[in-house]
Write a structure and sequence with these properties.
The complex is a heterodimer of chains A (187) and B (1026). Chain A is α/β, with parallel strands linked by helices and 187 residues long. Chain A contains five helices and eight strands; from the N terminus they run H-E-H-E-E-E-H-E-E-E-H-H-E. Chain A has a single domain, classed as Response regulator (Rossmann fold, 3-Layer(aba) Sandwich). Helix content of chain A is 43%, strand content 20%. In chain A, a hairpin with a 2-residue loop joins strand 2 and strand 3. In chain A, helix 1 packs across helix 2 and helix 3 crosses helix 4. Chain B has 1026 residues and is an alpha/beta fold. Helix content of chain B is 51%, strand content 17%. In chain B, the strands form seven sheets. Chain B has a five-stranded antiparallel sheet, with helices on both faces. A five-stranded mixed sheet of chain B has the order 11-13-14-16-15. In chain B, strands 18-17-19-20-21 form a five-stranded parallel sheet, sandwiched between helices. The chains are: A alpha/beta (187), B alpha/beta (1026).
Chain lengths: 187, 1026
């Protein structure tokens, strides 16, 4: 009886710990991705042209956890109080869970960050939106670049930017050549 | 097998190639890329770790200071190295700066430090601004690949070593498999070959087949060859075998061989020999029976034909024997009539012409008689009816007898006959002296016949001498006409003459050599001939003899005559050498010269030098001064004091030489051929003046034993008993008799004897059983000598009798000399010295030889007692006439009696029949009946003569005329020439009345045309002549 209880306790502990460990790894990847998202934006040759109200609007798209989106946004903004600048342009962060991007037909953001793994429909909608509006859509989640998301990160011996060249070409976005020297490309 | 090895080799080659391919693929496609990926990852990490140092330097200051700071940072990076291998981590570093982000003059910070080549791993590290995370530039590192290269080499070497090890293992396994395959294959091939060979044998051998049976005995298998052999179906063969084969082998019987017969489909009888073996299983149980069979039908047919042929041959042989016996009897009867009638006719004073014709008729009839005797002799040899006796004899004595026979004729032909006996030849032998003499006489007669001048040498050598046996080689060498080489191969065939002209010139039917060769073979030897036409011939043969126990060795002179100086003179080299050798073997020191003159000179020279010769042996006839003249001159020589004794040796004119020798004072005359014993006796007689010289013919063994010595004579044959009794009493012994073993035992129990003479073969209790019983009575008879008497004179008999308890052994028929010699070993002679000369030679009115009856032998066995011999002959005739069944015992008795009395032909026939009777073989009495008839006639003749012998008295008549007539008559008698009758009349007219009786005997012999007997009587008369 006591043994059964002991085994049950071990199994319960494992049931709790394993998802936590997995979540932690996903968070770390998401946080590293949030920082690398700034490198993407600064590599966009036409980023100054995408300023809205002399600010660069950055949209964090989430599914159901806005806090997570906020947490990632803080990582994106870094240690500067005002979140710093890109090419001298101040950054403005917005949050949305609307995959249709109904509120951003005219007020087009310079980049979209997927704070939570999207479903297929959301992913397709965001990709279409990015292509139509020449917006860098960025997802820190594995497999999204291969699914058509324009940018992401590749974690191997070093963390590198990951670009879907087709989506990039379709989005008609030009990145600095130097950026390509350190970028993994998906064709 | 080759194919299997090739397949295995191919598989192993494929495996090896696959291994090599997999290893290569694994290295090139998997391991090396992975190593490279890992190495690049490591390089990226190492390079990435240096990004902050470069970013710090880029952001550290402005202008020249920043460039300097950046160069310093890059140079320090290039200094970094592996602690163990001292290999720098980075080969070069190159910077590309985004001047839109870093405010600096374009290109001033794009620096490159380190090696300029393209070696190592290229890795590019992004330089992000730590604040804005903007990309400020890219640093391109060339990271050293030395570690990777070294590691990949090590791994590749390890991989190759493992691969080689596996390949080696594969090769080893391949070699083992090939070896095993080869071995297995070889064994399989051997088995297959064996099976094929076996099948081929069985299928090929036309008369063999094999079969198998189960443990119950049912035939389970028959080879195909059986069907072919018997022209029957396999099922039919199986059925026949099943029906005829015996039950399977019983327990403990591993093999079974037997014969069966069955009828084939043509109802012909087939004979089959089968051999069957049990097949034992692992548990020891009988699994089956394997059989091999052979059709021997053809062989059986041949055997049957051979048996019939043998029966026919035996029948023909019996017919031939019967014919020969009949011929002998039927032809000799008219021949005797012819001889008798022609002699009677010659007494009727016919004209010279008619007398000559009558003489030729007589000669021809005698020739025919001799021919018939030869044919019968040959027939008896070929049918095994002659046996070689094994009796003790003295070789020298036999040679002396031979010398007597041939010496005269050789002298008449002026031929020299020499006996050259090697020193090592044993004198005493055990064998058949009569047959040996017959062979030698035949060869000598031939040599005499075909030699007209020169010499005839008889060489005698011992080719092998052991303790109890000797092989003696005799050769008769002449200087005659020789024989052409093409005639030699058929020389020993019966009825073969060298050519027809020879037969006409020299006579003879060519049987002598055929008989001689067969006799030699019976004596364990072989006869050979070497001949050259115009040079001469040498006939030689060897014969096996036993050596009697205690046989006398070499004849030597007494010690006082050792190294006696002897002078020999003979113009004939061979004769000189032979005489010298004989004297040397007598231990004399010999000097030989070739003439009378030389002998005189040598004798005088030696005397002058104070070393005179003590004896001289001269040939009588030599060119110049002959032996007699030389002796006469030496007798007159004053230098020779004392007188030099001389022995004169002569081959010619015996009587004259003897007479002349006496006239001139020759000490002794020896007639050639000289035998060693003759020379020995002559030397002894000359050297010891008190020992008178005696002609050998007069010698008789006169032995006297100590008075009172008693002999028990155990003998069932009455005649033999009488003969032995006479001999023993003549030797001064008391004789008691027993007829069989039981009587002997009774006599021994009640009386005492000094020696027992025991016949071996007797009814009731034979000699061997009797002596065993005597020896069984321990103590009393331990030292009693028991001497066996037997006609079983075969090899090994002597040992058998001695083992049974006999003390010694005498062969039958008993010879007096031999009997007394054996008794002398066990009884003391009397103090008178034992041997004394006998002044009375045996003489009788009976011819020496009659048909089938050797009278001389018989009389000798009765110690010269002719009356006794005649009485025994009369008893023997009764024995011959007795109508008792001819069983083995009767034949044995007949053999003993006839042998003792000299009826040799009856003895031989009876001995052969007795042997067959004891073996249970069929008996054919033709030869015996014929021999008995012949001897009965001879006995009648012998008993019809004057009963009492009388010694020849010396004649008063002297002179060469008488000698010449006697010599002429002897020559005519020898040639069976009736001119001898004329000579007889001449002789009768000149001899005095003292010779009346001998002359009557001589006349009687002439009347009976018994020329041999006439010659014997004439010889006795000549001996008695002064």
């Amino acid at each position: 009886m006591r043994v059964r209880r002991f085994v049950a306790a071990i199994l319960s502990a494992l049931a709790v710990v394993v998802p936590i460990v997995a979540d932690d790894l996903a968070d770390v990847r998401a946080q590293a991705g949030a920082r690398l998202f700034r490198a993407f934006l600064s590599a966009d040759i036409d980023v100054e042209k995408k300023a809205v109200d002399n600010q660069l609007l950055i949209l964090f798209l989430y599914v159901d956890d806005k806090n997570r989106a906020a947490s990632l946004a803080s990582h994106f903004l870094g240690e500067a109080k005002d979140g710093g600048t890109i090419r001298g342009l101040p950054l403005s962060v917005a949050y949305s869970s609307d995959a249709t991007m109904a509120g951003y037909k005219t007020k087009v953001p310079a980049g979209i960050f997927l704070a939570q793994p999207p479903n297929d429909a959301t992913r397709r909608a965001v990709i279409r939106y990015g292509i139509e509006h020449h917006v860098i859509v960025y997802s820190p989640f594995e497999g999204d670049v291969e699914s058509g998301i324009l940018g992401g990160l590749s974690v191997e011996a070093q963390v590198r930017p990951y670009v879907n060249l087709s989506t990039l070409s379709a989005s008609n976005i030009s990145l600095k050549p130097l950026f390509f020297k350190v970028t993994k490309v998906y064709r | 097998m080759r194919k299997q090895i090739l397949i295995v080799s191919a598989i192993f080659f494929f495996l090896a190639a696959t291994l090599a391919g997999v290893m290569a693929f694994y290295w090139i496609g998997v391991l090396r890329p992975r190593l490279q990926t890992e190495a690049i990852a490591q390089a990226e990490m190492v390079a990435r770790s240096q990004a902050n140092t470069i970013i710090g330097a880029v952001r550290s200051a402005d202008g020249t200071q920043r460039v300097r700071s950046l160069v310093t940072a890059l140079d320090e990076l290039l200094l970094l190295q592996d602690a163990k291998t001292k290999t720098p981590f980075f080969r070069s570093v190159e910077l590309k700066i985004d001047y839109e982000v870093i405010p600096a003059e374009k290109g001033t910070l794009d620096l490159r430090r380190g090696a300029t080549d393209e070696g190592g791993f290229r890795t590019e590290v992004a330089l992000y601004d730590p604040q804005t995370f903007e990309l400020i530039g890219v640093a391109t590192f060339r990271v050293s690949d030395r570690f990777f290269v070294q590691l990949s080499n090590d791994v590749r070497h390890e991989l190759m070593i493992v691969s080689l090890a596996v390949l080696l293992l594969l090769t080893l396994v391949w070699a083992v498999m090939v070896f095993l395959l080869t071995k297995v294959n070889r064994q399989q091939r051997a088995i297959v070959d064996q099976e094929q060979k076996y099948e081929r044998l069985v299928e090929t051998l036309s008369t063999y087949f094999i079969y198998g049976r189960n443990p119950r005995g049912d035939v389970t298998f028959v080879s195909d060859s059986a069907s072919r052999l018997f022209s029957m179906s396999p099922a039919e063969v199986t059925a026949r075998l099943q029906e005829r084969l015996a039950p399977p082998a019983r327990e403990g019987e591993t093999e079974r061989n037997y014969a069966i017969t069955f009828l084939d489909n043509d109802d012909a009888v087939r004979h089959v020999e089968v051999s069957e073996l049990r097949v034992i299983g692992e548990e020891g149980e009988i699994e089956a029976f394997d059989g091999i069979a052979r059709d021997v039908t053809a062989q059986k047919i041949v055997e049957e034909e051979l048996r019939q042929a043998k029966d026919h041959a035996e029948s023909a042989d019996r017919a031939k024997s019967a014919f020969l016996a009949n011929m002998s009897h039927e032809i000799r009867t008219p021949l005797n009539a012819i001889l008798g009638m022609s002699a009677l006719a010659a007494k009727q004073n016919p004209s010279p012409k008619i007398r000559e014709y009558l003489g030729k008729i007589g000669s021809s009839a005698r020739l025919l008689t001799e021919l018939i005797e030869d044919i019968l002799d040959l027939s008896r040899i070929e049918t095994g009816r002659i046996e070689i006796a094994r009796i003790d004899f003295d070789l020298d004595d036999m040679l002396a007898e031979l010398s007597d026979v041939v010496g005269v004729r050789a002298g008449e032909k002026n031929l020299e006959i020499l006996f050259n006996t090697a020193a090592e030849v044993p004198r005493r032998l055990r064998g058949d002296p009569t047959r040996l003499k017959q062979v030698l006489l035949n060869l000598l007669n031939n040599a005499l016949k075909f030699t007209t001048r020169g010499e005839i040498v008889i060489d005698i050598n011992a080719t092998e001498t052991r303790r109890d046996r000797a092989e003696i080689r005799f050769s008769v060498r002449d200087t005659g006409i020789g024989i052409a080489e093409e005639h030699l191969p058929t020389l020993f065939e019966p009825f073969t003459q060298v050519d027809a002209s020879m037969a006409r010139r020299f006579g003879g039917m060519g049987l002598g050599l055929a008989i001689s060769r067969r006799l030699v073979r019976m004596m364990g030897g072989e006869m050979q001939v070497e001949s050259t036409v115009g040079v001469g011939s040498t006939f030689s043969f060897s014969a096996q003899f036993d050596l009697p126990r205690g046989a006398v060795g070499l004849r030597r002179l007494a010690d006082e005559f050792r190294d006696l100086p002897v002078l020999v003179a003979d113009d004939n080299t061979s004769a000189r050498t032979v005489i010298a050798n004989m004297l040397q073997s007598l231990s004399c020191r010999v000097t030989a010269v070739e003439s009378g003159e030389a002998a005189i000179n040598e004798a005088l020279r030696a005397a002058r030098e104070g070393q005179p010769y003590r004896l001289a042996v001269f040939d009588w006839r030599m060119p110049g001064v002959d032996g007699a003249q030389a002796a006469a001159q030496l007798a007159k020589a004053s230098e020779l004091k004392p007188h030099l004794p001389v022995i004169l040796v002569t081959a010619y004119e015996r009587e004259y030489a003897t007479q002349r020798g006496r006239e001139i004072g020759i000490d002794a005359v020896l007639h050639k051929p000289v035998s060693p014993s003759m020379l020995h006796d002559a030397v002894v007689n000359v050297l010891v003046p008190g020992t008178p010289y005696r002609p050998r013919a007069l010698e008789q063994p006169q032995v006297q034993f100590e008075a009172g010595k008693r002999v028990l004579l155990v003998e069932d044959n009455e005649i033999n008993r009488e003969v032995a009794r006479e001999m023993l009493r003549a030797a001064g012994l008391e004789v008691d008799e027993a007829h069989n073993g039981y009587q002997a035992m009774e006599k021994l129990a009640s009386d005492s004897y000094d020696v027992v003479l025991m016949d071996v073969q007797m009814p009731e209790l034979d000699g061997v059983e009797t002596v065993k019983a005597i020896r069984a009575a321990r103590g009393r008879f331990d030292k009693l000598p028991v001497i066996a008497m037997t006609a079983h004179a075969m090899l090994g008999d002597r040992e058998r009798f001695l083992e049974a308890g006999m003390s010694d052994y005498i062969a039958k028929p008993i010879e007096e000399k031999q009997l007394l010699a054996v008794l002398g070993k066990w009884l003391e002679f009397n103090s008178g010295g034992g041997q004394a000369p006998s002044p009375v030679p045996p003489s009788s009115d009976i011819p020496e030889i009659l048909p089938g009856l050797m009278v001389g032998d018989g009389i000798r066995r009765t110690s010269g007692n002719v009356a006794l011999y005649k009485r025994l002959l009369a008893e023997f005739r009764k024995e011959l006439d007795a109508e008792e069944p001819m069983n083995a015992d009767r034949l044995h008795t007949l053999k003993g009696s006839s042998s003792t009395l000299g009826a040799r032909r009856v003895a031989e026939a009876a001995a052969a029949l007795e042997q067959r009777a004891r073996k249970g073989e069929p008996l054919f009495f033709d030869e015996l009946r014929d021999a008995m008839e012949e001897v009965k006639q001879s006995i009648a003749l012998a008993l019809s003569g004057a009963p009492a012998p009388s010694p020849v008295q010396a004649s008063t008549v002297t002179g060469p005329e008488l000698i010449t007539i006697a010599k002429k008559m002897d020559a005519h008698l020898k040639d069976n020439n009736l001119a001898a009758v004329t000579c007889f009349e001449e002789l009768k007219s000149v001899v005095g009345p003292n010779f009346r009786e001998p002359m009557q005997q001589l006349e009687a012999s002439l009347d009976k045309l018994d020329f041999d007997a006439a010659r014997a009587h004439l010889a006795a008369i000549r001996e008695a002549l002064p």
